[in-house]
Amino acid sequence: MTALTLSTAAAPGLRADAIVIGVAKGAQGPVVAPGAEAVDKAYDGKLAGVLETLGASGAEGELTKLPAPAGFKAPLVVAVGLGEEPGDEDGEDGYDAEALRKAAGVAARALTGSRKAAFALPVDGPGAIGAISEGILLGAYSFDAYKGSAQDAGNARAKNGKAPLAEAALLGGKPRDAAHKGALARAVAVSEELNRARDLINMPPNDLDPAAFAGIAQAAAKEHGLKVQVLDEKALAKGGYGGILGVGGGSASAPRLVKLSYRHPKAEKHLAFVGKGITYDSGGISLKPAGHNETMKCDMSGAAAVFAAVVAAARLGLEVNVTGWLALAENMPSGTAVRPGDVLRMYSGKTVEVLNTDAEGRLVLADALWAASQENPDAIVDVATLTGAMMLALGSRTFGVMANDDAFRSAVYEAAEEVGEPAWPMPLPEHLRKGMDSSVADIANMGERWGGGLVAGLFLREFVGEGIAWAHLDIAGPAFNEGGPFGYTPKGGTGSAVRTLVRLAELTAEGDLG
User: Fold this and answer.
1) Helix or strand or coil: residue 278?
2) Residues annotated as binding site?
3) Region of 451 on the Ramachandran plot (φ > 0 left; ψ -120 to 50 alpha; else beta)
4) Residue 426, exposed/middle/buried by CB under 10 A (0-12, 13-18, 19+)?
5) Distance CA 121, CA 70 (A)
6) Which residues contact 416 (CB under 8 A, 6 or more apart)?
7) Most buried of 16, 66, 124, 414, CB within 10 angstroms?
8) What is the DSSP string of 310-364?
9) Residue 266 and residue 233 in contact, taking contact as beta carbons nearer than 8 Å
10) What is the Cα–Cα distance from 361 to 218, expressed in whole angstroms?
């Protein structure tokens, strides 16, 4: 990843390929943001006017390049839009962290191929340092593992002609300030793990089957001092994990359930994260139509997010116990695949009538949720690319949050908003539960068509232990970006929900989450 440093150097004398500054959308036109005073001075205080002449307005995501002024060692100034200038009406006296994160991401991506850039964006404390750092590291991300020849493996420049931005100096950051250094270190740990999740999501399914994913988790556990347990198909059968076995039964690649545990000696709380890990989803016997399965390698995005969050918690040394459960299977049609009409006996002992084999995520999650419940954690959060219905409701950039406790749902939603992950609280209407009544089993895996995302949430709730706070994040929309990159979000796997889970772990460690 891009190497980050904190610097108190003045922009004019810094050797770099570019100086990145912020420009905001003011009432009378573009406004040069704090941090760029030295650059503005070199333009005789007329930089805003120059930018406006070039068509800049300060709108979010807007990028304008212009030659650096005389006397600068960097040849280029890159002005990136921060959106509306902060006003006093809401008590705001600084730029929003997400605005800084997005602006840094846009600039970092635009500087692909550059050796070094200096970021002179507004810095008013450690929060800004963390946001800018995350934006740079996430915005500079690219997935190049499968480009170029085998001899070029690991050499991004050989594969696509341009390597990601190699180095970034954060001007205004204080190298000897503990809070600034801590914010930078946190951003690096979280961003590295989020980018690892992106790598997993982007990997082709012929290289990332359940066994391969489990192997990656085992290697990470060894590296970061985590405990790991992997249940293979024999152990799953012995344990009675009918949901995971049923979904994975049609594939030549056998399913796995991975338990990844981080423990802190002073922890007083325990969180369990559960991730849907369908490494490829054909729909099974209820086969997806053409045009709906080309990106289904991303159906393990929930497991990738959980994996990344547990490792990040360990790297940050958070004073909380965190257990990640990765429910891994490949959903394929074959003579051994589960059929519509089959009844599965789940790990909890409940029976499920399978009416649609493409509603498979809830089946693997049900087993993992019950397994997580047996440890009686203080809270469980599951993450899944679960339903197209959630995309119809909230679009492609917002995930839904459901829960069995209103206060916990609000806490999860607020954590997501705090870290810049768009989310929305969703209900679990009791009247929708009746639609999953089955004449042959305890419950069916399908219910009413309308409100399908909520029906899925109600199904999952059936497999959460009594008295345990639980939330369900349906990340079907934002998990995989099929459009062009924006802000710090690339095309392809996004790592959605990683930062929310990490923030929940931090809040729990601090005693601020219930």
Assistant:
1) strand
2) 276, 281, 299, 358, 360
3) left
4) buried
5) 21
6) 399, 401, 422, 423, 497, 500, 503
7) 16
8) HHHHHHHT-SSEEEEEEEEEEE--STTS--TT-EEE-TTS-EEE-S-TT--HHHH
9) no
10) 23
Strands 480-481 and 63-67: unpaired
CA separation for the pair 265, 413 (Å, rounded):
29
Residue 235: is its pLDDT beyond 50?
yes
Task: Write down the catalytic residue from 263, 288, 461, 491.
Answer: 288
Known catalytic residue: 409? no
H or E element at residue 168: strand 167-171
- 352, 228 contact by CB (below 8 A): no
Q: Which of 198, 362, 409, 499 is catalytic?
A: 362
Helix (H/G/I), strand (E/B), else coil: 277: strand
Q: What digits encode the pLDDT tens for the residues 145-154? A: 998 865 665 6
User: Could you tell me if 479 and 301 are in contact, meaning their C-beta atoms sit under 8 angstroms apart?
Assistant: yes
Query: What three-state secondary structure class fits 297?
Result: helix
Name the DSSP class of 433.
G
436: number of Cβ within 10 Å: 22
- pTM greater than 0.90: yes
Binding residue numbers for Mn(2+):
276, 281, 299, 358, 360
Laid out side by side, the sheet with 227-231 consists of: 227-231, 256-262, 321-331, 270-281, 379-384, 469-474, 399-403, 423-425
| Phi-psi category of residue 55: left, alpha or beta, with phi > 0 → left and psi -120 to 50 → alpha | left
Q: Is beta strand 423-425 parallel, antiparallel or unpaired with respect to 399-403?
A: parallel
Q: How many CA atoms lie within 13 A of 395 on its CB side?
A: 6
Positive or negative: CA dihedral 83, 85, 90, 94: positive
- What tens digit of pLDDT does each residue of 38-65 get? 999 999 999 999 999 999 999 999 999 9
Task: List pLDDT tens digits, range 354-377.
Answer: 999 999 999 999 999 999 999 999
Residues ≥6 apart with Cβ < 8 Å to 311: 193, 196, 220, 224, 226, 260
* Token code pair at residue 373: 């419940």
The C-alpha atoms of residue 504 and residue 513 are separated, in whole angstroms, by: 7
Q: How far apart are CA 476 and CA 145, in angstroms?
A: 25
**26 CB-contact burial (10 Å; exposed 0-12 / middle 13-18 / buried 19+):** middle
Which 8-state DSSP code applies to residue 462?
A: T
Whether residue 473 contacts residue 385, with contact meaning beta carbons closer than 8 Å, is answered with no
CB 499 within 8 A of CB 507: no
Which residues, in sequence order, are CB contacts of 394 under 8 Å at separation 6+? 400, 424, 477
b/e 299-322 (16+ beta carbons within 10 angstroms → b): bbbbbbbbbbbbbbbbbbebbbbb
